[in-house]
Amino acid sequence: MENFEYLNPTRIVFGKGTIARVAGLVPKDRPVLMTYGGGSIKRNGVYEQTRAALQGFDVREFGGIEPNPRYETLMQAVELGRRENVGFLLSVGGGSVLDGTKFIAAAMRFPGSEPWDILAKRAKVEDAVPLGGILTLPATGSESNGNAVVSRESTREKLAFYSEKVYPRFAILDPETTFTLPPRQTANGVVDAFIHVMEQYMTYPVNAPLQDRQAEGILLTLVEEGPKIMAQPDDYATRANIMWTATQALNGLISCGVPQDWATHGIGHELTALYGLDHAQTLAVVFPALLQHQRARKAGKILQYAARVWGITEGGEEQRIDAAIAKTEAFFRSLGVKTRLSEYGIAEGYDEVAKRIGARGSALGEHGDIGPAEINAILALCAA
Questions:
Q1: Quick one: 204 and 58 in the same domain?
Q2: Coil, helix or strand at residue 123
Q3: How far, in whole angstroms, is CA 217 from its chain's centroid?
Q4: For residue 209, is it within any domain?
Q5: Nearest Cα to 67, choosing from 354, 366, 316, 276?
Q6: What pLDDT digit, counting tens, does each position of 169-209 carry?
Q7: Are 150 and 70 in contact (CB under 8 A)?
Q8: Is-contact 285 191, C-beta < 8 A?
Q9: Which residues make beta-bridge pairs with 89?
Q10: Which of 132, 172, 220, 284 could form a disulfide with 337 if both were Cys (CB 3.0 to 4.6 A apart)?
């Protein structure tokens, strides 16, 4: 096991009727900026519950944060927050709203003239406005980590940053808020959580049995609960299991002391930036192809995954690897998520992905050896 340092300061408040708890978690001595997305919280009752809980607070609102939150939109919120002397941010919505709110928190106190440098130049976040969240879509795990991903429309870029300063102070997770999610968003959330685990698990063995078992437990739960949630979207127990599982997938625990990959995300972000695919759609396309391309280097963990998650123990090593990759792809497709670029009408031009990643000097993967040539080879496998 490798050396590690672990921190997670986020208070999780989980269960039915917990939105009312926000009144005791948000400071009352300063203006609060409530951020949200396209308005679904006004249709499912979450907006009314939140405003009722915040009665007597000095609340401003900023709506319209997109899936794959846009820098241009977020900077409008930054200006509003600065102008109104906002002292706390409350994200109400899914992971994209929370990611965007994290950027707002950092940008409001960024001393430079161009907050995009936080993403493009990895400028250090020295300070941020404190924030909390009410989660309505389990997927990204953003509710209990310091990660955020932001897109810039003018340059067609999608970049990430991390800072301990933007961990949410609290996250309220009420599974009932997810009952009205469309099937596409529900399926995307399951895929997103699954790949988050795989980016931290599917590398090479380092004698970290606890982390491996924790990761496998999350994967098994998603495999078991994913089909249930698609068949019975209003089942509280299943919604609760998926919500907590998605949080566990990316709260930093299973990454302690183990190598990480994140090549699927790196390639997927470019596909979203260039073609507008949902984040989870890109992951479902790229990951099986990446496993195929990297099968020799990842053989030890693929075989372990095959046995422990899918029960594949018969046949030679190559047969078992093939079967594990096929099972993974079939799982995504069983949720209604496509796994080929051609199914999204993308037949050519995707070599731009490798060019953009190469231009940033990035080498992806746990070994840092997935460059432009390898990315093109992976994408060729995605296209078939």
A1: no
A2: coil
A3: 19
A4: yes
A5: 276
A6: 999 999 999 999 999 999 999 999 999 999 999 999 999 99
A7: yes
A8: no
A9: 33, 131
A10: 284
Per-residue pLDDT tens digits for 127-151 = 999 999 999 999 889 999 999 999 9
Residues 223 and 273 in one domain: yes
End-to-end Cα spacing for the chain: 38
User: Which of 177, 198, 231 is the endpoint of a domain?
Assistant: 177
Question: What's 26's DSSP letter?
Answer: S
Look at residue 250 and tell me whether its pLDDT is greater than 80: yes
Q: What is the pLDDT of residue 362?
A: 77
Give the range of the structural domain holding residue 196, as residue numbers without chain letter. Answer: 183-383
Q: Around 301, how many Cα atoms within 13 Å sit in the side-chain half-sphere?
A: 28
Q: Evaluate whether 69 touches 99 at the Cβ level (below 8 Å).
A: yes
Provide the 8-state DSSP code for 111: -
Tokens representing residue 65 in the block: 């944060």
Residue with tokens 């396209």: 38
Taking the C-alpha atoms of residue 50 and residue 311, their distance in angstroms, rounded to an integer, is 44
- In order, the DSSP letters of 283-295 are HHHHHHHHHHHTT
Q: How far apart are CA 264 and CA 234, in angstroms?
A: 31
The angle subtended at Cα 231 by Cα 225 and Cα 233, nearest 5°, is 80
The CA distances from residue 104 to 22, 25, 66, 219, 226, in Å, are 20, 20, 14, 32, 33
CATH number at residue 322: 1.20.1090.10
Residue 364 tokens read as 């992806």
- Of the three residues 144, 177, 210, the one that is the final residue of a domain is 177
Which is it for strands 59-62 and 32-35: parallel, antiparallel or unpaired?
parallel
| DSSP bridge partners of 152 | 157
- On whether residue 236 sits in a domain, the answer given is yes
Residue 3 lies inside a defined structural domain of this protein: no
The DSSP bridge partners found for residue 173 are 14, 135
What's the full length of the chain, in residues? Answer: 384
Backbone torsions φ then ψ of 180, nearest 5 degrees: -95, 10
